[in-house]
Amino acid sequence: MSGLLVGVIVLVVFVVILVWKTAVIVPQRNEYVIERLGKYRDTLEAGFHILIPFLDKIAYKRNLKEEPIDIGSQTCITADNVTLEVDGIMYIQVVNSRQSAYGIADYHFAASQLAQTSLRSAIGKMPLDKTFESREYLNQQVVEALDEAAQNWGIKVMRYEIKDLTPSKSVLEAMEKQMRAEREKRAEIARSEGDRQSVINRAEGDRSEAIARSEGEKMKRINEAEGRAQEILKVAEATAEGIRKVGEALASTGGREAANLEVAKKYLDEFGKLAKANNTMIVPGNLTDVAGMVATAMTTLRQTSKTAAPMPAARPEHPVAAR
């Protein structure tokens, strides 16, 4: 019985080992490279698989997911001989498990080393100022160099990102001074542009003010001239109308007698005012000849009336005027 029990136990252990060696479950997004007697036989994808015991074995396991690889800090020299400390991160993916297993011994190490050398080469072709502005260009250069070299490695470089670009302390101090000088320069330029624009604006304001003032003065003078012209015209029209009325009055019945009386009255009134205003005056020789003075004035009125408007046919003079 003891011998039978030992045999059963051995059989069970053998079956377990057989199942362990033959049954393989490959997880999702993974592939196993199988070798038979030391040679490549097959690549197992995700799922359940049976191997031949003691002949087949799992030689390599590959993860098909995208993998990040940290690229350590390294020293790079720019085209203008400035030292930089640069580090980054790279993302790769296995696209061919067989090539990744037999194309290179360690694709992780090879990709990271190639990324460092490619980055040093790209930075060495440009000056310091350009490196800070061209991160995308540097990343693209590294990816292109890795893709070209990794074609036989069964991997693909998805992207590369530079994390830090750190110049030396002396370079940082020089850059700070340069930036300070540049900021002061821009501030001075902005200040001078502001002063220039202010002067231009004031000059334009003065010009507009002078033009407006001159236009106002011009309109004022035009208006005053037009006012004076209107005034002269109105006075002339009133004078002409007065003369016409006088002529009509003289031509009417009894007009001459009334005119004689009015002229005599004005003569006496003005002579009286002259006597009041002055203690000494020159008395005309014909002071008492009021009729002669009136006749002279009436003659003048008749001549003026003929010039202003046509006069009716002359009538015989009134006996009073003939005296």
Topology, pairings included?
Elements: H1 2-22, E1 23-26, E2 30-36, E3 39-44, E4 47-50, E5 56-63, E6 67-77, E7 83-94, H2 97-102, H3 107-123, H4 128-133, H5 135-149, E8 155-167, H6 169-251, H7 255-277, H8 290-308, H9 319-322
Antiparallel strand pairs: 1-4, 2-3, 2-5, 6-7, 7-8
Helix pairs in contact: 3-5, 6-7, 6-8, 7-8
Question: What descriptive keywords fit this protein?
Answer:
single chain; 323 residues; alpha+beta; 3-stranded antiparallel β-sheet; 9 helices; 8 strands; 20% strand; disordered C terminus
Structure in words:
With 323 residues, this protein is an alpha+beta fold. The chain has nine helices and eight strands. It has helices at residues 2-22, 97-102, 107-123, 128-133, 135-149, 169-251, 255-277, 290-308, 319-322; strands at 23-26, 30-36, 39-44, 47-50, 56-63, 67-77, 83-94, 155-167. The strands form three sheets. It has a three-stranded antiparallel sheet with strand order 3-2-5. It has a three-stranded antiparallel sheet with strand order 6-7-8. Helix 6 crosses helix 7, helix 6 (169-251) crosses helix 8 (290-308) and helix 7 (255-277) crosses helix 8 (290-308). Residues 308-323 have low confidence and may be disordered.
